[in-house]
Specification:
The chain is α/β, with parallel strands linked by helices and 486 residues long. It folds into three domains: 269 residues, HUPs (Rossmann fold, 3-Layer(aba) Sandwich), CATH 3.40.50; 146 residues, Isoleucyl-tRNA Synthetase, Domain 1 (Orthogonal Bundle), CATH 1.10.730; 53 residues, no CATH class. It contains 15 helices and 15 strands. The strands form five sheets. A four-stranded parallel beta sheet has the order 4-3-9-10, sandwiched between helices. A four-stranded antiparallel beta sheet has the order 5-6-7-8. A three-stranded mixed beta sheet has the order 12-11-13. α10 packs across α12. The two termini are 42 Å apart. Bound molecules: zinc ion.
Length: 486
């Protein structure tokens, strides 16, 4: 395979060559679990899922590490303010780990619905405090950090004398300061660009651990350097995440690795672009913050309908991962139709009878799909080729073209390999019409039950309820009838 990927560090497409032949180590920054996952969480998860799937398809043994941030992610993203999880725990009177467990379970459920495969390892920051303390000790020993009132800060100016702080985001030390605000912790720092490796916990801070410097907690950037190298080695192949993490998070990761280990850890830095909603950035304060659950249920004022998880996945893959994606109901409805076209073609494949000769070029489409994937995961091109394949299917069903037995096998494989295995689309899942018919049938049963109840025919009403429950449905009586979920 000749995969070329765009490396944020060199700002160019590079031929992918793994450090260890046949093996790939990839690390992706995972969620900070203090709230429900939204559309912005779906994009990196799906982007790197496709990379994971493609590398696996190409025969690599991939170790995919995606971390869970459950400590140290402070409100102001840098290293000031209250810990996001601790704040949620305080407001809801829960243990911080209850907050983490609750949202992590929901995150996993959403990811499964989106067809995102589980990573090989999902390490928690709070489970690696000892390793993070060791990492800080190395940075201190090498002279790139200092202790200030129980906290440990990375000495950016000192680092920048020999190395370039800002190389990933293309900044100089001076312009890394542009957006730095004056915050309470600044007095402890020698330079405003310095960032926390270890923070001394204030008395009200509920998540803290003992360390040689203070009772405290690790800085947010530290967990990824520590856990990445713990599970993938001092140097590893790919590090991914959203573009919003380039600075300061990944910039700080590079500095930490160089300061602790004497060299950089990552060969290829990959970043997915952001999702906007009607051209605006998503944000709680803007009222356009839609969780994945809300998309699946159609339960948000900006949504005109519910969307299947696979529609969301298809919608995201219709754009190249380095382009922006703008959400609108129209765009999602178009994605829904597009996916239905592919599913329809996939289900019609079984109705095609092979002839002696092919008048269609299946090998050509296969090659274009492979070339597109190898060209920095160009999923929109793969999808447009799958649409061409769907046209071929229709012309074959209508007997306007013919296909050999061998090509027919290849055509089926094209949908299975590129559609299902690599893009991770569940093509055999019921299409929109099937889903509607199925929902209609369940609604009808519940209506019959209502009627039975109105006629005091308790035997029939109980029978319908019990048998639906046995099939896995949850029936909830409401004032105007009943609601169901599976
Ligand atoms: Zn990270």
């Amino acid at each position: 395979m000749a995969l070329r990927i765009y490396n944020t560090l060199t700002r160019s497409k590079e031929l992918f060559r793994p450090i260890h032949e046949g093996h790939v180590g990839m690390y992706v920054c995972g969620p900070t679990v203090y709230g429900d996952a939204h559309l912005g969480h779906a994009r990196p998860a799906i982007t790197f899922d496709v990379l994971y799937r493609f590398l696996t398809y190409a025969g690599y043994k991939v170790r995919y590490v995606r971390n869970i941030t459950d400590v140290g992610h402070l409100e102001h993203d840098a290293d000031e303010g209250e810990d996001k999880i601790a704040k949620k725990a305080r407001l809801e009177q829960l243990e911080p780990m209850e907050v983490v467990q609750h949202y992590l379970t929901r995150y996993h459920k959403d990811m499964e619905a989106l067809g995102v495969l589980s990573p090989s390892i999902e390490p928690h920051a709070s489970g690696h405090i000892i390793e993070q303390i060791e990492f800080v000790k190395h940075i201190l020993d090498n002279g790139y950090a200092y202790i200030s009132d129980g906290s440990v800060y990375f000495d950016v100016r000192k680092y920048n004398e020999k190395h370039h702080y800002g190389k990933l985001s293309g900044r100089s030390l001076e312009n890394t300061l542009e957006n730095t605000r004056e915050l309470d912790g600044q007095a402890e720092k020698r330079h405003p660009a310095d960032f926390a490796l270890w923070k001394k916990a204030q008395p009200e801070h509920i998540m803290h651990w003992p360390s040689p410097w203070s009772e405290g907690f690790p800085g947010w950037h530290l967990e990824c350097s520590t856990m990445g190298t713990k599970y993938l080695g001092e140097t590893f192949d790919i590090h991914g995440g959203g573009m919003d993490l380039v600075f300061p998070h990944h910039e700080c990761e590079i500095a930490q690795s160089v300061a602790a280990l004497g060299h950089e850890s990552v060969h290829y830095w990959m970043h997915n672009n952001m999702i906007t909603i009607d051209g605006q950035k998503m944000g709680k304060s803007l009222g356009n913050f839609i969780t994945l659950e809300q998309f699946f249920a159609g339960d948000h004022k900006l949504l005109t309908q519910a969307y299947q998880p696979m529609t969301i996945r298809f919608f995201i893959l219709q754009a190249h991962y380095r382009s922006t994606v703008d959400f609108s109901n129209e765009a999602l409805q178009a994605a829904e139709k597009g996916l239905a076209r592919l599913r329809d073609a996939y289900s019609r494949l079984g109705r095609i009878a092979a002839g002696k000769q092919s008048t269609v070029d299946v090998a050509g489409i296969w090659e274009k799909c492979m070339d597109a994937m190898e060209d920095d995961l160009n999923t929109p091109i793969v999808i447009s080729n799958l649409f061409d394949a769907a046209k071929i299917v229709n012309s074959l069903v209508d007997q306007k073209a013919s296909i050999s037995q061998e090509d027919l096998g290849k055509l089926k494989e094209l949908f299975t390999v590129f559609g299902e295995q690599i893009l991770g689309l569940r093509l055999s899942e019921g299409d929109g019409n099937q889903t509607k018919a199925y929902a209609g049938a369940v609604d009808l049963l519940l209506k019959l039950r209502q009627e039975a109840k109105a006629n005091k025919d308790w035997a029939t009403s109980d029978k319908i309820r019990n048998e639906l429950t046995a099939l896995g449905f949850t029936i909830k009586d409401t004032k105007d009838g009943a609601e169901w979920t599976l």
